[in-house]
Prior knowledge:
- This protein is mostly helical.
- The protein is 66% helix and 0% strand.
- The radius of gyration is 22 Å and the shape is globular.
- The two termini are 40 Å apart.
Amino acid sequence: MFGRVKSLDAILATAEKKSLHRSLGAFQLTMLGIGAVIGTGIFVLTAEAAQKAGPGMMLSFVIAGFVCAVAALCYAEMAAMVPVSGSAYTYSYAVMGELVAWMVGWALILEYAIAAGAVSVGWSGYFIGWLNSSFDLNVPYTLVRGPFDGGVINLPAMLIAAAVTALLIKGTKESATVNAVLVGVKILALTLFVILAIPVIKSGQFTPFAPLGFAGISGAAASIFFAYVGFDAVSTAAEETKNPQRNMPIGLIGSLAICTIFYMLVAAGVIGTVGAQPIYGPGGEALSPGTPALSQACTAIQENAVVCSKEALAWTLKQIGYPFVGWLVGAAAIIALPSVILMMMFGQTRIFFVMSRDGLLPEFFSKVHPRFHTPHIITLITGLFVTLFAAFFPVGLLADVSNSGTLFAFAAVSIAVMVLRKTDAGRHRPFRTPAIMITAPLSIAGCVYLFFSLSAVTIQLFFGWALIGLVVYYLYSRNRSHVGRGLMEVHESDADIPPAPGTT
């Protein structure tokens, strides 16, 4: 099971050949983290969290942020030591062998492809709300929601996923300047929300604080984890960081702390102004987000609750008398969220590309388009699945399933860091995780805790997906693996990997 390990020395030899200039300080890392983290989760999942935890979702943000912080510190040591493509998949291959690496890579499909679907559905909610408020168009639910959510098909989510797929195949370079502007737009929108909502908070809206108990807060924390995914962008910049031992923890913990405070202020603004109590069924039972039962209950009250909204922040601003600012926040989400879909789908194609070069997936997956120089086949396949996820599934279910894959990958990285400290203690580590025997177990325990706080359906889906992965591995990948066949050439050279958006 753990026998086929790819040589860490071969991976590192390549990394040394293409070492990057160390130019990032603590401030730049913190800004990078904030830009990567603030996105879909806070714009879209606030309503889901309210249905699961009520006002207690404020505590959910703290729990999810803490688990992310300890996982990030473990991630940073591996990223600094093995600064190559493939992220958690590559780290696992180097430390725990091919089968674990395959399962991590298989789980990362959940992280990236399904997350891209979730962002597409989130974008659709804001787009339809914006159309409604701008042109007074009432698009029927059958065309803008999936079957679980009171509709038939989500056409806007399909269209944005298809458009991003086309951009990726063409090889659009998203410039750093445009990306910075989009980050600014997101932060400005959230800042405006906080400035307008906080002064009109009513303290009575916070009781009962935890209507569904601590289990509800845990469930919301497991969903809200999606709002923090992206922080590993800071970890992967370890090779370009000045004095990484000092600056990496500042960048990681600093960006997560700022984002957590931001998120709590936004959550407080929603709760204190329009309330965030869950909606119950006829028998007094709490209804699950993204189900036909909740959709019917929302229709019965004419969608007049934040837990019913597909554009929670814009809806809240409209309710408290700022329709134009609500319109602006909706426009900001519409402008900024497609870049998140693009980066999620790019991450997915990069993982597939590396797995294909290792022989674990068919070789044609890593074929590059002769004109556009992009992996067009795997981008098309990824785009097709993302489009289907976006068309038929609600955002909450997609985010939860994505989280299950992410939590599995982060736990694997945390185990890998501890294993390497024992088996290869003398290796140079540009960044060392502080108090590793406390931090790594905390990270693993936190990931397991959030994983089992997900809904039973999500956990079953994850284990079903893992089972399919094992079948594929033993029927196809194990016999074609380059490491298994003794082809030990170094695959990690990034020369043949298409450049990331924002690079040339």
